[in-house]
Amino acid sequence: MLTPRQKQVFEYIKKFAKKKGHFPIQKEIGKHFRLVKSTVHQHIETLKEKGYLNNQARAIEITENKKPSDLVEIPLLGTIAAGEPIEAIEEKETIEVPKSQLSKSGEHFALKVRGDSMIDDGIFNGDVVVIRKQPTAENGETVVALMDDNEVTLKKIYKEKDRFRLQPANPSLKPFFTKELIVQGKVISVIRNYESNIYISSEPLVSTEEIKNIYKEPLTLFRGEDISKFPSTRFQGSKTKLVDWVWDNTKNLEFETVVDLFGGTGSVGYMFKQKGKRVFYNDYLKFNYLTGVALIENYNKKLTNDDLEFILSKHKNDKYPNFIQTTFKNIYYTDEENRWLDIVSTNIGKIKDKYKQALAYFSLFQSCIIKRPYNLFHRKNLYIRKADVKRSFGNKTTWDRPFKEHFLNFAKEINQAIFDNGKRNMAFSQDAFDFNKQADLIYIDTPYISNKGVGVDYIDFYHFLEGICDY
Hints:
Elements: H1 4-20, H2 26-33, H3 37-49, E1 53-55, E2 60-62, E3 71-81, E4 86-87, E5 93-98, E6 108-114, E7 128-133, E8 142-147, E9 151-159, E10 164-167, E11 176-178, E12 182-191, E13 211-213, H4 243-248, E14 257-260, H5 267-274, E15 278-282, H6 286-297, H7 305-312, H8 323-327, H9 335-349, H10 354-370, H11 382-386, H12 396-400, H13 403-417, E16 426-428, E17 441-443, H14 458-469
Parallel strand pairs: 3-6, 14-15, 14-17, 15-16
Antiparallel strand pairs: 1-2, 3-5, 4-9, 6-7, 7-12, 8-9, 8-12, 9-10, 10-11, 12-13
Helix pairs in contact: 1-3, 2-3, 6-10, 9-10, 10-13
């Protein structure tokens, strides 16, 4: 699938090469489209990923006759307001969309979005929405509605006693009310436009536009077989086994936004994300916050084989510190394992993409935890791993398995867990008393109380991981 801008860049590259006999450099592309360097880089990388350009190290090369069989073209009819209703503009363009992102039947078209009234549903100014033509809709669905014969708008629809309510997904805006309207279609997909909020940066923007289903079955945005699996985690007080109970006790409430105030592993926030809610994840511990960034805020970034190779390799020209080797010698891990941690922690710290770095940290943290007796860092007990004695707890096979193997397993799991629910989910690392993000529902699960009547000291349990965050 190519967005209109990607198609324009691709066509410009082809025409430039045909006319001048060589391919344009990024500076020339940027000048032609009035784009900053980072945006041009993003488009080139996306065209490479999608197979329209060959992935050459020093040159652009076109892949001929590129037209994946699972792509279909649908009309891009014009611009629709997500704010005040405006008249639709008919501009004859097309956009390529994967067949898997369309309904199995029916006719589809696309419209560019203008305005910010649907931002809480993940539809932003400049995005493109994919519509299935249909004359009816259920309460709460986002529709293209025609009012007064020629005014078209994009809103959630609700049928009330003697009128229709067209509700923005933006708390600062008021709804529209009308007694007559014509439903022209229902939103089923959104193509995000990253250019509408571009800022000048020396680093490339590596996000790629992609369509994700956002309106499916009631109570969840996905069909059962599409629901991503939450990765395995080991954490004191994790609620992984209780998420179904939490949902059973909240699903009948009317809410669209959720604060998970003590986020921990993110299992509860992840469940609400699966149910189509906008989630604000929070945890005071930085290593937990990075889990929230990776699983809750992140919606499309995954670790590639190249990323994993970079993380797990020792680079000849890089200088690696030995802080973990010297500071934690014979405390938690063997000398060889500490050396591996120094290298990998340093490499992860060099990853410039926020979400890929968080994914890598998650994989590292879980690898560290699974190799620890009791899965904690509150005791100097490496001797338990080394002792050849019978024990009633733990798994020596798991402890002795190489860090690299654990890391790759967790990386695979978290990659499989990434999905987009169409909402602008966010992760924070704030004191619970200072957190002021407003939401319809707040889930509070405070740290456990010990037998001494005080809260469990999670810093004591996980200080080693907190230190790696600032390594």
